[in-house]
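Re: export button greyed out
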Amino acid sequence: MHHFHRKNGALCCEDMPLSALAAQYGTPLYVYSARTLRECYRQFAASWSALDPLICFAVKANSNLSVLRTLAKEGAGFDIVSGGELFRALRAGARADRCVFAGVGKTDAEIEFALREGIFALHAESWPELEQINRLALRLKTIAPVAVRVNPNVDAGTHRKITTGTYENKFGIPFEDLPAFYDRAARLAGLRLRGVQMHIGSQITSARPFRAAVKKMLPLALLLKARHGIEYFGLGGGLGIVYDPALESGSPAWWRRQKHPPLTPATYAAAVLPLLRSLGLPVVLEPGRGICGNAGVLLASVVNVKKTARKNFVILDAAMNDLIRPAFYDAYHQIEPLTVRRGKLIRSDVVGPICESGDTFCQARPLPPLSAGDRVAFLSAGAYGFTMSSNYNSRPRAAEILVDGQQVSVARKRETLADLIRGEQ
Ligand SMILES: Cc1ncc(COP(=O)(O)O)c(C=O)c1O
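Workaround output, generated via the alternate export path:
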């Protein structure tokens, strides 16, 4: 679900032609649709309403203040993974008591920051971390609300770099160890065992792994509720989105294998929520991509087209530093000219100007003929797009724009050359 559609041949965000935004603000340019963000959030809230959900948007997916503020106004909580993300969420108007703090390596300073702000819960991932939180809570003369992240050892069937719920991964406590772990943790005076949590991976396109993980966890959660009075069950994030409606032949093999209909917040809830009813606890959800993935595009301009005997290279002004997902995860992004281009499709490699062969967005993708000055959009770039961008090759980072109906605002200014060296001596 999103609000990027063609009107009279012009690709628009809501009612705003993207070529007008590219002309005014330049490229590379991230453009987000506030209406899409709100509607995706509301779909999660409505689908899970039977279990009194706290929906904590995963800030790592898109941490722009305007995006966070849009969701905070809807009542969203936030899933954060660093002190920096907590800082951003608070700046955007979030309530700390609606935020959960994940991560395998929280520093003392980050934990103290979260405790001072009154975090809803810290999601702990090891025994040393529980001891660390306990020590800091006692020092601050407070009680730290915690949940332990469980590793259910379920393969989410997604790309190996975004699988987090198997024993090959660094995350969570093995689920067999959970009862003994909580019994031991209950003896730490600075902790309140508030919940139990899991997160098995990202871009999950089938309900099967979610159901398998919940089924494994359920008896343990019932036990923890009875023995330690836990108050919530955290399902993490991970709901996949549609990147490639056609599942076309240019997409990577691991994605082509996912042939079943895509999950939506509603079908995900319909498959998983009934399993949790018997637990009688509220849920905490941490969707990132499922809320913002389809709510953003990256606009780029064609700098050059280079034809060789074997290839047609379309060279853009956007690169892997702007959108690293294709290079990092072999990810597929649909590429659409902003205005309709007619002519025979040409198998093209779309690349950026960075000095890496990996700076390739797609290979041999049938695309309409493109020439220098044409503009294109990478669809579904709202999650793990700008947040994973960098200054590699000393490239200033892109600007970000939020469209909300007739209103267009600069959510982040384009970086300047001076920004590149700020802080250096
Ligand atoms: C603990 C945790 N929660 C939530 C998320 C968000 O995942 P997604 O964007 O796939 O919904 C992540 C992503 O890495 C995560 O690590």
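The mean pLDDT is 93. The button fix ships in the next patch.
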